[in-house]
Amino acid sequence: MILVTGATGFIGSHLVERLVGQGRALRCLVRSAGATSRPAPSGVELAYGDLASGEGLADALRDVDVVFHLAGATKARTVADYDRGNVQATANLLSAAGHVRRFVHVSSLAAAGPSDGRRPLSEDDGPHPVSHYGRSKLAGEDAVRRSAVLPRSVILRPAVVYGPRDRDVYQMIRLIARGWMLQIGAAARPFSLVYVGDLVDALVAAADRPASGGAVYYVAHSAAVSWDEFGRTAARLMSRPLHAIAIPGKVAYAIGLCAEWWTRFSGQPGILSRDKVAEACCAGWVCDSSRACRELAFCAATGLEEGLRRTLEWYKEAGWLKF
User: Fold this and answer.
1) What pLDDT, on a 0 to 100 scale, did the predictor assign at position 39?
2) Contact 76/68 with Cβ under 8 angstroms?
């Protein structure tokens, strides 16, 4: 029996589809009966529980062999909200999961921090997160490392994830579809990325293949890109002209501050903040995923052009974009 948290999210929904297609016994943790607008796929159990409080987790984990922990806060109004979503929620789940055979914890490259522009990050490099989000994801990893589940756990740090159903990278793609590309400054700032289908391959490999307890793996395609390359590739696939605008760092910081004020006023966290600007101003976010290739037999196969082609086709068919 497999338990998936975050099953209704972008990555989680793709993982659930894969596991259902493989005929695996699957249970999905949801907060309440109204937590998802889509009915559960045939053969999938729904378990109701609250990661923040721990309520219902013991029942959700009954007879479970493998846990995929994807739930977390990618945007939040306050530092405390990040901690509740990424640290306390993980600790509560771990406290009820001491019996499981494998605990696959999905962290983030943000937990490691940026690369220095000279070489990709490896798993042996010490972490140095630069954002509240990154620090909370690193603290979530530390909760795994302190837990009884550690000998049977695997920690994955995906790079930028894109693909069908994503709403974050979509915000940039939507702007590109209108012919515009915004970036902070003129520096290339390379970054690693991974197509969501490849990330699901890595998740399944982490659950199925032997790995040392608490092992950390970066998950990314081997070829890093720049936002300029990303934007121009997307514009070409949509047959759109592209006008790039470089925003000075101080202006971007002010925009991030205004976005935070709007978040406080509206009560709805957005993808833009001073934290996100600080991440975007770093020299690079490039990681080396060769350890996952060696030890998990996983290598991301989908390059930028093919991944964007599939993503844009889905956005078009879903009515999110017109081109």
Assistant:
1) 60
2) no
pLDDT for the residue 186? 67
Residue 273's pLDDT band, with cuts at 50, 70 and 90, is: confident
In-domain check, residue 208: yes
Question: 199 is in which domain, residue-wise?
Answer: 2-159+193-220+287-301
Question: In which element (H, E) is residue 141 found?
Answer: helix 132-145
C-alpha neighbours within 13 Å on the C-beta side of residue 34: 0
In this structure, the dihedral spanned by the alpha carbons of residues 143, 149, 155 and 161, taken in order and rounded to 10 degrees, is -80
DSSP, collapsed to helix, strand or coil, labels residue 18 as: helix
Contact 198, 14 (CB under 8 A): no
Across 252-278, average pLDDT = 75
The one-letter amino acid code at 189 reads R
Flag the least confident range among 127-131, 161-165, 247-251.
247-251
Q: For residue 175, tell me if it sits in a domain.
A: no
pLDDT over 80 (residue 148): yes
The span from the CA of 151 to the CA of 144, in Å, is: 10
Q: What are phi and psi of 233, to 5 degrees?
A: -65, -45
- Answer whether 0.70 is exceeded by the pTM: yes
Is 214 within 8 Å of 144 (Cβ atoms)? Answer: yes
Say whether pLDDT at 161 is over 90: yes
Closest CA to 53 of 85, 82, 28, 89: 89
SS3 state at 35: coil
Residue entry with tokens 């609250």: 50
Is residue 72 one of the residues assigned to a domain? yes
Mean pLDDT of 104-125: 95
The CATH number of the domain holding residue 139 is: 3.40.50.720
Question: Within a domain: residue 6?
Answer: yes
Active site residues: 133
* Burial of 298 (C-beta count, 10 Å sphere; 0-12/13-18/19+): buried
Q: Domain count of the chain? A: 1
Give the other-Cβ count within 10 Å of 320's Cβ: 16
